[in-house]
Batch of 4 targets.
Target 1
Amino acid sequence: MGTIDGLDIGTFGIYTFDFEHLPAAGLRESIRAVEEQGWGAFWFPEVGGREALSHAGYLLSVTERLPVVNAIAQLAPREPLATYGAARLLADAYPDRHILGLGVGQGLPGVTPLAAMNRYLDDLDRLAREQDDPRPIRRILAAYGPRMLELARDRAAGAHTYHVTVDHTAQAREILGPGTFLGVEHAVLFETDPDRAREIARAHLVPYLTTPYNLAKFHRLGYSEQDTSGGGSDRLVDDLVFWGEPADIADRLRAHVAAGADHVAVQVIGVAPGESAVPRWRRLAEVLLS
């Protein structure tokens, strides 16, 4: 079971970008389905304009027990005081249900990602000392490279990784050590035809195969320039997007747990615009959570 500072969020959860676009009624219906299906946690990013902490507050307000994880709340949109105040309110209003995932995101001009995160954490820790509030703000950091993983180990409850391989999970666990939380996102696709599956997967991976920090991550893992060019080699695509029948996908997701992940946040892709992912989440829950 995945545990963050004493909070058990289970071994598997749901991750989706879809909540950046749904109306409030759709958010309520979908998040309640996640809770009813038995998933351990719900993870969502901050990319489409919805403010991360108020978004988390709404999702917590329409559910009863499901932990909600900001994955991630970016540094640039909020000063540390705003982040701290919002996270403190959520910790008070919804005890043991909110996890603050922080990430550099698009970065801060003139500051390295590591320096930016250290500075932000310094400010959050100073505010916590001034408030002297006993309720914990559980925080994890988006981390890929060794130094950010070390920072997550030393200054947070753990790390959250995104679009990584099972080998990366094993390497991250070695850096984090045995007592630090490691949550891993992984994309999956309900498609059994290899050509069609890879076509959909490549369309999904375009942003990640064209950004320097993602390319650096893949090259550190041993993929060549040829693997990461032209939409990605079959080997890279198959490692980053697990496709096939739900039972086969479930087996491959469990490989992250065997490699050292405490929790895997599953992102189901290949859902047509206007179509709900809820039925696919349910099918996967039947084979993964039983």
Target 2
Amino acid sequence: MAVTKELLQMDLYALLGIEEKAADKEVKKAYRQKALSCHPDKNPDNPRAAELFHQLSQALEVLTDAAARAAYDKVRKAKKQAAERTQKLDERRKKVKLDLEARERQAQAQGSEEEEDSRSTRTLEQEIERLREEGSRQLQEQQRLIREQIRQEHDQRLRGKAENTDDRGTPKLKLKWKCKMEDESKGGYSKDVLLQLLQKYGEVLNLVLSSKKAGMAVVEFATVKAAELAFQNEVGLASNPLKISWLEGQPQGMAGPSYPGLSKGSVLSERDYESLVMMRMRQAAERQQLTARMQQEDQEGQPT
């Protein structure tokens, strides 16, 4: 029986990280803690996690059933004693075992022990088969609790995401730049370029380029914080700067054009304008270097 052979090779107490005398309550608690981290629903692409979850389930079934646990403990104890005897054998005793009478006596003793071990193993096999046929109520209950906890964690993440989007809904920004309808380069701003510029501030849920008016797009962020950072810091390409304005979800008390450090109504002096242009050029150069480095890393990572 494949399951039984697998069980005989494992230390179920060590697998769950509990003592041999652990009560059922401790067994269930240890199972929930370990099984939750390797549940297949949380690790869909990790076959090792699914295998470990299956082993933990077997351990729970055996150790929460009195008869099956007693049979397992008996087999485990016999294996432990046999290992201790083997460990104590030294070269001197191995030579003594060459004596015919000693070997005969040991053979008789081992025959008795092997028979007892065989009976214990058969008992454990029978108990595991019984658990399989009856279905483990303990396992079903613990797995129900784990599914419930996973669902609660999922709901909490959704609630947290909803809170971050503010009561006014998901934040949206309007982007404008100079572009003629016949310009195939779209003024230097394709959807991929815009995403690359904006995603560093946070998760972008959607980005739509206007099909009726050149040089305009709408971006939807997952959080107000991400939209706020993009509004305050993004200037776009030095050769064709972006004009960013709020469309939806603007935080209270926040207004003005998307010039970092300048409030609405500020008048740009020649020196200020020069500094602003230089800052944009530096940012554009940094972005171009980053893009080139990322493309180089992508090419190096591709199989030849």
Target 3
Amino acid sequence: MSDSKVTFENVAEVLQNDTRVKLAGVDADGMLRGKLVSKKKFLSVIDDGFGFCSVIFGWDMHDRTYFRELQISNKENGYRDILAKPDLSSFRRIPWENNVPFFLVSFYDPDTREPLLACPRGLLNEALRKPAAKGYRAMAGAEFEFYQFATPDRNASSTATFLKENPVETLPPLTEGMFGYSLTRPIHNQEYYYGVFDACEQFNCGIEGWHTESGPGVYEAALQFGEASEMADKAGLFKYVVKSIGTKHGITPTFMAKPREGLPGNSGHMHISLVNSDGTNAFFRSTPDPSPPYPDVAHLSDVGRYFLAGILAGLPDIMPMFAPTVNSYKRLVENFWAPVTVSWGLEHRAASIRLITPPAASPKATRLEIRVPGADANPHFVLAAIVALGWRGVEKKLEIPVPPLSKGEDMGGANDKGVRLAKNLGAATATFMHKDSVAREVFGDAFVEHFGGTREHEVRLWEEAVTDWEVRRYIETV
């Protein structure tokens, strides 16, 4: 963890015993892209930034350029540099790399010096700006479920190496069977289990709760609640910690939404609330409403109701930001505790939005839990979408569009009260990019065209792929 608050005035002093610095920014898929630089180089760029190849916004997660050239990085502009500026407030040290200093960067257009249209950190900061202008701060908490696999040869370079020569189903889970909240399963890999927890604390992305989930080799982590802008950073860095510590132990964690057929998927639930300038919870209604539109919102303030309505109204139009991969939609199916409709309910874990208010929670803990995102989603885009949609609801004073799910009511089936969310990435992207989509209203055409284009690329690769399932099913029978 950083032991000093870094500013322009003291950065040289904080780094006086260092010779190198690691820098990283976030790409459209939520992946960290960065480099190691000399301290001299770092100190020379903290004022004006430095050039960073724009191709990180011109290719996919496997460095394949998008089939359709997009605005930021393309042949016409020569895959030119964009501007990267270190964020000194993001300072921490990497404990598993000899405490090398680490800073996040944000990306800017080199001509206008404005935040780059697809920079995840910039998009979130822009979404947070509007409620901040009215005296509100957004607070958030992230939860991640993820599977972990043991590389059969613990000395192998990676699971990817193993999978080049072996079927994916032969990759063994870290532990067998279903045993959620087990106190004994983590002992099987105790050094890794405690190593992740301790490294997260030291790397300033601390874990609040850490336990096994129901599924072979599945853990769940709830990160320590905090400012929404910092939470997105910490969520992305948490994945970095887990993957880094896992590598040292021959373990491959996966944040895929659905890595195993027939088993629950990996969620990336996000909790959100607004606080007033005095720190009080803006979603809490101090005097219960005697005649609320629904009993479920008796303890929810008007601002909270508008915010909830805004997310529900825009949810179908921003689905690629919550479920960004082809695999995402394998999780969002009926009967697996994953929401598939525009729905909400008080303390209802089957709904897309779980409302948490008194009497089940304290006034300061009043919040919304957005349960649609998977663990594979980019946390900056998830929070940007939540805040942008919620604030749209506040500005427009939107009414909650659907009644709550009642206790015992499922979210699946033909008689749902809410609209069925997209069943695949292609449909979700088409809705996202529609000329009248809410996404265009809150994020602008430039972002929608860029991010939508990246998702069209994913869909095209999937449509061209020949899968193991197809070969097994049809090789002899057709």
Target 4
Amino acid sequence: MNPLSRFTNEELEARLKDLVQKERKLLHVIIEHIREIDGRRIYLTKGYSSIYDYLTKELGYSGSAAMRRLEAARLLREVPQVAEHLQEGTLNLSQIGELSRAIKEKEKLSGEKVSSFQKQDLVAAVFGKTAQETQYEVARIFDLPLKDYDTQRLQKDESVRLEFTLTKEQHEKLLRCKDLAAHILLQGNGSVSLNEVIEFLADQYLDEKFKKPKSSRIPQQKSLHEEIKKSVRPSAQKLMSNPAIITTDSVVERKSITPKMRKLILARDKCCQYVNKDTGAKCHSTFALQIDHKTSKWAGGMNTIDNLQLLCSQHNRMKYKREAGIESR
């Protein structure tokens, strides 16, 4: 039996938050130890030529995990505030990795060392930011040159590795396409990587350009009703099986909600409209958005603009399960 199954949702979340705090504190202590071992060169007496070899071979860290911790330890030596922000969660190892790469690039370009004061200012500029926001900040502060060239390399399996630069607008468009096509991509092959998005867009264009039939590699979408009906308790199954009460057939939905209505709802809502009733926190996800009836059709809800909203697939699924009688503890 799962030992965590005895906890309520509230208890489980509280335990997780407590563990995350302990994990951050432990990470800080580990980084401190790595810094001290690196400073004393203890790894040399253990038969390793570098602290990196010690972390990977003696302690069993993966190469990337060892490098992130080593970068944090060395930055901590010059910027002591790093320790506090690691514990608070306003700074993480991914951000420190971005800082380290930017510092190395700046030193290579300028031929001069980045001072401790500059590093302190750099750390202060990225507190609480995401990895992508951190990339932008360090590039802006160091005035790193733009890389707008394209490179491609043919690999042994005849795949091609590409490296190219997108403008901010181009990147946002590609991510928007990724979110909107998520339903089809996830059903087709379980992947929503950018290379799959590019392939999907290319297929769409070529099918339209040359009037080819739609690709058969993507299975027909099943309604949410059919996907979860198996897990619904018997009393709810009876309710859902009555077509006079509830209609979830995807063909009916497509006919009753016109493309124009879908565009209006997408333009109006833009993101998932789920709001936590206790905290007031809104989801804001733009991934795999679905049109949902605020008042469900089985309860008399109509296909009107004011009764329709965007929900991400996960919150739409959760709402449906609750209405169907599948209650979470």
